[in-house]
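Notes to self after the Tuesday call (sharing in case useful).
The group wants a holo model before anyone commits to mutagenesis around the pocket. I volunteered. Ligand is adenine. Logging inputs and output together so the record is complete.
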Amino acid sequence: MAMRIDILTTFPEMFGAEPGCALNSSIPGRARAAGAVEWHARNIRDFATDKHQKTDDRPFGGGPGMVMMCQPLYDAVIATEALDPRPARRIYLTPQGVPLDQKLVEQLAAEPRLLLIAGHYEGIDERVIEQLAPLEVSIGDFVLSGGELGAMVLIDAVIRLLPGVLGDDDSARQDSFGVAEAAGKLKPPVERLLDCPHYTKPREWMGRAVPDVLLSGNHAAIAKWRLERRIERTTQRRPDLLEQ
Ligand code: ADE
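Result:
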């Protein structure tokens, strides 16, 4: 059964279903066409109760920006969840959330259903967050204009892990941070490494040759070289990953 993802947003058009739209290109687009995943963006504004379809208001205590009101969002969540009997994992995209990493992506990819809340303005009234108790997720230590791009990043990362989405089961696992080694012979510290460099034709380009070992046909030597490059890169670029 296809994983179901609902996105609650005041900009549902960002999740357009036309070919070429962000999520309808490349792997997510193919995954959707193949029936591995479906997603539906719903406008929180449709759940506003006043005649201006207001979803936000000025913050109590003053200050800049607007705050998303409790009731429209709450009603949107409850109504959306009722569209499918499977329980939805609620996620609110916010810079205050837990950092999204591959481990969390793997956990989310195992869920039958996700419900993503994309906030805007200065944030969401804290009481509706307390009431809904979503997992709060950040895609990085920077501030976006809204949660929509964060939701797309999360959706893309999750979709590529769904069964049957990538032709070669291994290619997801062998990317940076992948866990292929954990399943095989190598031991845990190699689980979360950056990717090795990749090469294709021609064998020489602008005086730069492809490393000999990759042309050797010696699979053990190639695997060893790749692992060494991964360790080297991770040591140079992201020593924090090795410390974890
Ligand atoms: N909304 C605004 N900034 C964000 C971030 N860094 N991650 C997730 N959602 C956000």
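Two things stood out.
Strands lie at 3-9, 37-43, 56-57, 67-68, 89-99, 113-118, 123-124, 135-138, 204-205, 208-209.
Residues 219-237 form the longest helix (19 residues).
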